[in-house]
Amino acid sequence: MCTNFTPTKRAPWVMDSFGVELPTGFPVESYPGFAAPLVVKSHQTKRVACGLARFGLIPAWAKDVKISPHTYNARSETAAEKPSYRSAWLQRQYGLVLVDDFYEPNYESGKAVRWKIELASGEPFGIACLWDRWTDPATGELIVSFSMLTVNADQHPVMCQFHKAGDEKRTTVIISPELHDTWLSADQEQAAELMSWQHMPALKAAPSPR
Fold first, then answer.
1. Residue 176 phi/psi, 5° resolution?
2. d(Cα 69, Cα 99) in Å, to the nearest integer?
3. In terms of pTM, does the model score above 0.90?
4. pLDDT tens across 2-54, in order?
């Protein structure tokens, strides 16, 4: 499961890929509760937008933000059923968080060693997300937040090597560039079809000590 990543700061790539400006004001690395650039598309107007969103989905019905540390990853197999994600999935609130790389623990040495995962091409990429809007009842502030979608990675040539022995291997869903608009415009059936690591571009990974 992905708990931290490097949001891209490569504004020309964002403009070339989505036709939108990259926002500013996000950290070098993002963890649950931190901000990151998220691309979304209106199903009514077809307008694409990119703004900052909080890592860790806060469903519209939540009383406070305490759920957020538990909702930064969503299992694609159950997202349509789980209360935290069900509304976002059914309302087709599919987004892409824009990153240069993300990190996972490798336990081959017997201890957790941080590894960096990125595209084999070295290009930035978009990770499939569900997003939602939540209004803080105390302040009236509107907060957009997201959860990264994940799939089984037991057979993935790169992602199968992470997490503890005996644990299921999982990976975030990376959407190939040619499928960006397909994902952002998808209905539920199309979105489910994209939830497979076989559709993902080639990855590379290496130890990345702090």
1. -60, 145
2. 20
3. yes
4. 899 999 999 999 999 999 999 999 999 999 999 999 999 999 999 999 999 99
CB 94 within 8 A of CB 129: yes
Q: What is the Cα–Cα distance from 65 to 119, expressed in whole angstroms?
A: 32
pLDDT above 80 for 63? yes
Single-letter code of the amino acid located at 123: E
Q: Please name the residues in contact with 6: beta carbons below 8 A apart, sequence gap of 6 or more.
A: 28, 29, 30, 99, 100, 101, 102
Report the C-alpha gap between 73 and 165 in whole angstroms: 20
What stretches of the chain show up as alpha helix (H) in DSSP? 11-18, 83-90, 180-184, 188-194
- Token readout for 104 is 């996972």
**Distance (Å, rounded) from C-alpha 104 to C-alpha 59?**
26
Nearest to 8 by CA among 49, 40, 33, 38: 38
Mean pLDDT of 51-79: 96
Q: How far apart are CA 86 and CA 80, in angstroms?
A: 5
pLDDT score at 1: 67
Count Cα neighbours of 180 within 13 Å in the Cβ-side half-sphere. 18
Give the pairing type, strands 48-55 and 142-152.
parallel
Contact 55, 32 (CB under 8 A): yes
What is the C-alpha separation between 59 and 55, in angstroms, rounded? Answer: 12
Do β-strands 174-175 and 125-135 pair in parallel, antiparallel, or remain unpaired? antiparallel
